[in-house]
Amino acid sequence: MGKDKKDENKNEWFDWLKALLLALGLAFIVRVFLFSPIVVDGPSMLPTLHDRDQMIVNKFVYNISEPERFDIVVFHASAQKDFIKRVIALPGEHVQVEDDVLYIDGEPVEEPYLEEQKEQLQPYETLTNDFTLEELPGGHEVVPDGHVFVMGDNRGNSTDSRMLGVIPMDEIVGEASFIYWPLDRMQIVGE
User: Fold this and answer.
1) 145 in the same domain as 98
2) Which residues form the active site (predicted)?
3) pLDDT of 119-140, one tens digit each?
4) Does 59 share its domain with 153?
5) Is 79:181 a contact under the CB 8 Å cutoff?
């Protein structure tokens, strides 16, 4: 009779161990392939994202769709550093800024996420310095296939495609659209 109790305890521990290993395996799969946390480092996405905001990166979304204009993406800027920026132009598009207006293929495009910053400018100040895609690293006439053009929302303090050139889509980790910490900033971000 004592042996049956021992076997029951062994089976109970084994069941707990199996459940724990299954939970750890699922957590690993979710973290590696689907979602992961990221901490915003620096002011380049102000006022949309603040330094030290903690976000969830959807790593799966770009396996089933392409990035869209104004998505906030995380990409490998180097082997050691990931950046978080906003997609501005897509493959095959020409991008330029003139007099603080974004032009895609010669057509003006509104950037609603910049309105608050633009309202605070003094007369004759601009948020984004004028540029054309041809003047930037790579000298492209249009964004090449398999690449995107990205910029930070804090245009005066952002290392982005204006310095780095276009970003290969295979360097994009995923889309960051949910701030989960600090709690008072919990929100879905995007346009």
Assistant:
1) yes
2) 44, 85
3) 888 888 889 999 999 999 999 9
4) yes
5) no
